[in-house]
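Components:
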Amino acid sequence: MEKPELIKDGKRLDGRTPKDIRPLRIEAGVLNEAEGSALVEWGGNKVLAGVYGPRECIPRHLSDPYKARLKVRYTMAPFCSPGEHSRSGPNRRSIEISKVIREAFEPVVMTHLFPRSQIEVYIEVLQAEGGTRVASLTAAAVALADAGIPMKDMVSAIAVGKLDGQVVVDLGKDEDNYGESDVPMAITHRGKEIVLLQMDGLLSREELAQNLDDAIEGCEKVYEIQADALRKTYEKEERGKLKL
Amino acid sequence: MGEETKTKILREVRKDFLQELLKKGKRFDERNMNDWRPVEVQKGAIKSAEGSALAEIGGTKVVAAVKFGIMTPFPDRPNEGVFMTGAEFVPFASPGFETGPPGEDAIEFARVVDRGIRSAEVIDVSKFFIEEGKVLGLFLDLWVLDYCGNLMDTGSLAACAALLDAKVPKIEDGNIVRGEYVGGLDMKYKPLTTSFIKVGNHFLMDPSRDEEYAKDMTLTIGSVEGKVASIQKSGDAGLSKDNVLELVDVAFEKSDELRKYL
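Structure:
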């Protein structure tokens, strides 16, 4: 496929303005068995996250006498892309993403309260349309809170970047593929601490500064939806209902 | 107390309790022996797949997704397409599930669901021939999201719904044109399974997870309208010939109740 015109008359491929984010729906408490869970539907992404713990650390020799071990596993289902059926299970890309997501939570999850235990976060991408890692992190944060894991702050994530010379927020699949730059970020709500930051492409210092400002603003919108999803779990008559 | 020891003790307690209940003809949730728990099917849940469904029986949730791909046929069947079933016990689905390659339970699950569909010749794979050395492959993935007992029947319900939802892609110059379709799968039957657990002298249909703790064995019967299409006896105990035939009769009747959700 040839590179499409990503911005035309100030509008993006799907009609959004540079600062618009795709429709975002978050629901917490969608699974029966997981201690905490969340579904994030973000544009064409559908991501489920489930949390267990703190519970006994296995294998025991990896347990930490001073804090809980945080385990994060991000995987993509083989049917999540509209193209070819892919292999199931972790690969180099998903292992890296699992690592950076885990490190985003290390500063906020109060692991020192649960020495020798482990907290497990499992993330399954069921449908993908660009920005799965930020959708996953957003889902994982809600699932952790839904599981009642003590956290110092909430974490929200969004991808920003540059298309056809213009700085934009929340890149879709084609924008990610054909854009000039992609900057996935995660920020804590109160502390405004950047806990996940990656970047590829080319950006000037000024463009990066603009991107950082936009991401902080975008994460604020994501946070509101996360908080709302958590609030709604207390109004729910029944947990464990999943609508995909 | 370790997780493992805790599970073992709970299992024993639940088993005793269920056996006492069964003597009075009752189950944990006041169901009759051959009642389904609440059933729900959402077809088309995954837009990136050519066919999909989320099926739920009593809280157990399985997503089934159908994807097509171009493949080399098996050497002994050069004119036939390929049908493959995979399963993943997603680790958040149960506190007992672990990460890593599929274990024997996940493999048995995928194979039993696969057999019910394959043996009834529900899908005509001869229609998947493209040209010499090139056929269409159908990948059926079963993703277990929430495990509250009776995985087998929830999985086969999801699989059947996803196959009914599936659209066969258009082929041009030996390649798949993504997003264009020639029609549905034209399925001959709607294969489903009905599972029973044996607890002492009792047989219970659609066991919950707590009931499964107390089981001596499981019998899964795959059926298509009025015929048996597959059977799997799983677990350590045995059963009699009369047991099998009685359960087949129940399976015929009860699988028709499930078909109404398709």
